Structure formats: structure tokens, C-alpha cells
Amino acid sequence: IHGWKQFALRNWSVAVPALIAGLVTAIFIYAELNSAYSLAHLEAYRPVFSWRRFTLTNAHFINELLYDSVSRIGRAILVAWPVIFLYAFWRRDRLLQLMAFWVVITPLPLAFIPARGGAMLYIVLFGWAIIIARVLQDLVGLAGRVLAVSEPSTTMLRTLATAAVAVALAVFTQWQSQHFDQTRVLLSSGQKSLHVIQAFRSLNLHPALGSTILLEPKARFYQNPWYPKFVASLVWNDRSLHVYVAGQQQLTHEEIANMDYVISFNEFSAQLVRTAESDRS
Q: 0.90 cut: is pTM over it?
């Protein structure tokens, strides 16, 4: 017991910041989950804690990193998880061991909600990049030992292997970009957003603080169901506004009737269906 007391006293100053951070995080999570406007109430952010959702989401992560969100490669790599752990502990490489846990644990905040992609994957991408780099390093070292080359030659072999992998990755990225026509898709998406922004700005609308706005798209010309809300938030840049998208949130007839603004829009035009006249300029 005396030993535990000494241990606690020695490490108390180190533990206090972590405990405070944990307490603040717990309060934040509780508030986010139980507030009236919590994202957890929305289908797109509602977690489903199941093994199937976990595996499908992680497979989707891998496929997204390889530019193909519908391939079977992701599921195949999930089967390789035990192999990665065995390899890391067999090598007794602490960095590999850390990265083996990394690629499993870091996606957990996103692993049980509907699949995300793109910018959400940079953390797990770091883990896979380190694992692949370590494996390639070991393969080059093994090739050097098999070929019985000298140390300078092994260093040169590592340099050439690194360059070859970089070139292969660049070629693969270019091929996938052309295959999925990503450049045109991204440029088209940017133009579409610009059109919608111009349509909203053409209303010359300046909502009062705390106003409620209902957006009614005339046609579904976007993929992300929350796209209209994001564009509206960008245009008015007012966090006090409550913006709703028709069909995405369960609103009662009374709530709809009490909206301060109802806006009908498509990609190129927007129309005020109902407005709080005193707030319109």
C-alpha cells in the first residue's frame, strides 16, 4: 500500500491534466448527445453498434483510400488485420505494434455511423502509410540479404525502392483519377456550389439572429442530403440561425408554419415562399 501511495504522489502532477481533459471531454460528450440540436438525433450521425457496421465501415475506409468505394479490396485487407498484428509482434517493432492498433482504434469515432470518406480518413491513412513503409523496408532488407549485397548497395536498393513506390503511387493515382473522372467531378461540384451560393445571395436576405429557415429543394441535384444547409450556413455565416432541409428532418406542420423563412430553390435560382417581412431588406 505504501508503494502505491508513493507511486500516486510521484505521478499525480502528470495525471491531473489527463483527468481534467477527460472530465471536460465527458461533459462535452454528454452535452452534445443530450442537447435539443444534437447531431446524434439525425440519422446520418446516429451510431449503430454492431460488428457488421464496424467491418463495413472500415472496409469502406480502405476502399476510399484506394479511390474505389465499391471494390472488395477493403474487406480483404480487414482479413489481414490479424496478420499485421502477428507481424508487428513477431518483429518486436514498437512502431509497427502502435500502427497495428492505430488502424483499428483511430477510426472508432466514425466506425459505427454511416460511412464517411475523404478528409475524415487522414488519421487512419497515416497508420497504413507507416505499416506499408515498414513492410517495404523489411522486404528490401530481405532482398539485400538474399542477394548478399554490401551495405552501400543495400542503401542504394532502398533508395531505388522508395522512388519506385512513389512513381507507382503517382501512376496509380493518375490512372484512378482518369478512370473515375475525378477532376471533372470536382470542378463540376465547385461550379454547382457557386451557382447555389449566387442563387441564395440574389434574395438579398439578412435573417435576424435566431431565425428559423426551411429550405425546400425543387429537385435533388446534389448527393449529400445536408448540402443545402452547408451552403446556407456559408452564405449567411450566422451560427444562431436554425436551418432545416425539407425531407431531412421530422418537422410537424406547426413547426413548418412557424418558420420565419421558407425558401424554395434549385441550382440556379431561389425564391422566398414565406418571409418575416420586418427582417427583409
A: no
